[in-house]
Amino acid sequence: MDNYEAIQALHNSLPPFSPYVPASLLPSIALILLASTFVLAFYFSTLPKDTFPLRETAVASLASVLGGFGVVALFCSAGVNV
Amino acid sequence: MARRWWTLPLFLVSALAPSFSLAGPAFENTAIVRTIELGGSLVHVSTTYAVKALEPGQTTYQIALSKAERAKTSWLEAKVKARLHLSSSARMSPGVAEYLLSISLPKALAVNGTLNLVLETMQTHATRPFPEQAAQNEPQLLKYETDLFTISPYTTLVQRTKIKSIAPNVISYTTPHDVDSFVRDGSVTRSGGTITYGPYHDIQTDTDFVAKHQQSVSVHYSFDYPVIEVETLHRTAEISHWGSNLNIEDKAHLHNAGPTLKGHFSRLEYQSQNFQRKQAPHILSDFTLHLPPGVTNAYFYDQNGNVSTSHLRTAPSVAKGSKAVQYSVLQLRPRYPVLGGWNYSYTIGFDTPLQDSVSYDAKDGVYMVGVPVMTPIPGTVVNDAEVKIILPEGATNVKFVSPFPEISNSMSTHISYLDTVGRPAVTFTYKNLTYKHTDNIYVSYQVPLSAHLKKVLSVSAAFFSLFAFAFMARRVNLNLHKK
């Protein structure tokens, strides 16, 4: 019993969880990031076709990363807390 | 894994008693008073032992529970001077006829030293409807049976048993027979809703006594609230670090364990009872749950879909660990009134902010979550409960502790949205839970940031594959004619 009580006391005394990104900001973050992803995807479609696709890869990677964060934020703001 | 194991510093498990041999004349009970508060699914028994030590230096007192009583008991607590000394998972040594519970006294009693010990137990499935069938407008009558004498390894100078019913009309109660040798006044008296068996003098409940004098007494009483059992309860608690949210979902199968309905259900009769505000006691039309403060996004649905007959009054969120002053109140009305013998299955769920339940130890990077075992429906017993706590993806070093011993626990993998390898989940199963079993289960785990970024990475990979496809598609010429 004292093992449980000790764990309970420890849990009550430790500081509470704090997220990396505050939950109230998630809808705004989702909007901004997904809008950027959309813009970058459009920009990607206008890029010239080079032999060494440096620019295309860079734009695609950036758009993917922003899209990744944006989709996770979108899921959380829609109520599906992933 | 941290498991709760019963080694209180003061607790001594008694050696297995091979039979109901007397524990020696170490103590004497100057008085035993057993008070039984009758309910529907739950019966609360409180036994006070006034103990006198006959030999010096006694540190352990033994309480006996008959096998039948032990089978009905789902929670027990022993207190000496209001300080808890034994709780619901105490180990009881089984004997031939009964179980012995060992209580360590706070300090050794000298000869003729006295002490008051209070044993509280909660019994489930101890009452049964009698008659077993009742029409819609008939009262609800239940029967409760118990042994007449409270058994103890020590001699008892005087003992009595009080059986209390909430409603004052007790239909009948058995009059004990063959107890004249222990009785000075009447063997049983009744005053309103309280029936007192005793006082009985100079009792020594050894095997001969039990064989000759122990008898079962029953009380037939009226009960004015529906007798509800939750046959199965599945609780799922899902932790999300990205959304900073703890979602708790309960899937319950309610059963009205009162007298089964005789005849057919008359909606007209039901409406007229409602109008006259004299609803039959065995009909469950609504019930109230007390949810934690800070609840959002509550939902209530059943097999047909959303049930709109519910009302939620939220209370503002309180910090983790502090006692909730105000609970969120959820009033639920099932889709149909649940009459005797009927069942109703539903799902309720709600979100609470993660900071109210999870703590973080920055030194080790360990998170700890406290999830209550269940939200009690007042006056009900849960026959089988399963609690599943789903941790974030990539959680490692999982340790858990349950407030009282579980029937079983297991780890599994739960796959949900945006998962790559799946989330670890801890599952506990319990039996016969009551409103006394609502403490927290604590689970500790560690999650690195890279595990959280795995979700982002998987979505990014999906996006990038689309871009790669577009990259190749732009370079494919689908023209039909050469330019």
TrEMBL record, chain A:
Annotated protein name in UniProt: Dolichyl-diphosphooligosaccharide-protein glycosyltransferase subunit OST5
Keywords: Membrane, Transmembrane, Transmembrane helix
Family to which this protein belongs: Belongs to the OST5 family.
Membrane topology recorded in Swiss-Prot or TrEMBL: Multi-pass membrane protein
InterPro entries: TMEM258/Ost5
A single GO BP: protein N-linked glycosylation
Signal sequence annotation: none
Species for this entry: Suillus fuscotomentosus
Any single GO CC term annotated in Swiss-Prot or TrEMBL for this entry: oligosaccharyltransferase complex
Function text: Subunit of the oligosaccharyl transferase (OST) complex that catalyzes the initial transfer of a defined glycan (Glc(3)Man(9)GlcNAc(2) in eukaryotes) from the lipid carrier dolichol-pyrophosphate to an asparagine residue within an Asn-X-Ser/Thr consensus motif in nascent polypeptide chains, the first step in protein N-glycosylation. N-glycosylation occurs cotranslationally and the complex associates with the Sec61 complex at the channel-forming translocon complex that mediates protein translocation across the endoplasmic reticulum (ER). All subunits are required for a maximal enzyme activity.
Localization per Swiss-Prot or TrEMBL: Membrane
Transmembrane segments: 20-45, 57-80
Subunit field text: Component of the oligosaccharyltransferase (OST) complex.
From TrEMBL, chain B:
One of the protein's GO biological processes: protein N-linked glycosylation via asparagine
Record's keyword terms, sorted: Endoplasmic reticulum, Membrane, Signal, Transmembrane, Transmembrane helix
Record carries keyword Kinase: no
Membrane protein topology class: Single-pass type I membrane protein
InterPro entries associated with the record: Ribophorin_I
Keyword Transmembrane helix among record annotations: yes
Predominant place of localization: endoplasmic reticulum
GO cellular component: oligosaccharyltransferase complex
Pathway: Protein modification; protein glycosylation
Residue intervals passing through the bilayer: 456-473
Residues in the signal sequence: 1-23
Subcellular location: Endoplasmic reticulum membrane
Complexes and interactors: Component of the oligosaccharyltransferase (OST) complex.
Free-text function comment from the UniProt entry: Subunit of the oligosaccharyl transferase (OST) complex that catalyzes the initial transfer of a defined glycan (Glc(3)Man(9)GlcNAc(2) in eukaryotes) from the lipid carrier dolichol-pyrophosphate to an asparagine residue within an Asn-X-Ser/Thr consensus motif in nascent polypeptide chains, the first step in protein N-glycosylation. N-glycosylation occurs cotranslationally and the complex associates with the Sec61 complex at the channel-forming translocon complex that mediates protein translocation across the endoplasmic reticulum (ER). All subunits are required for a maximal enzyme activity.
Family the entry assigns: Belongs to the OST1 family.
Protein name: Dolichyl-diphosphooligosaccharide--protein glycosyltransferase subunit 1
Gene source species: Suillus fuscotomentosus
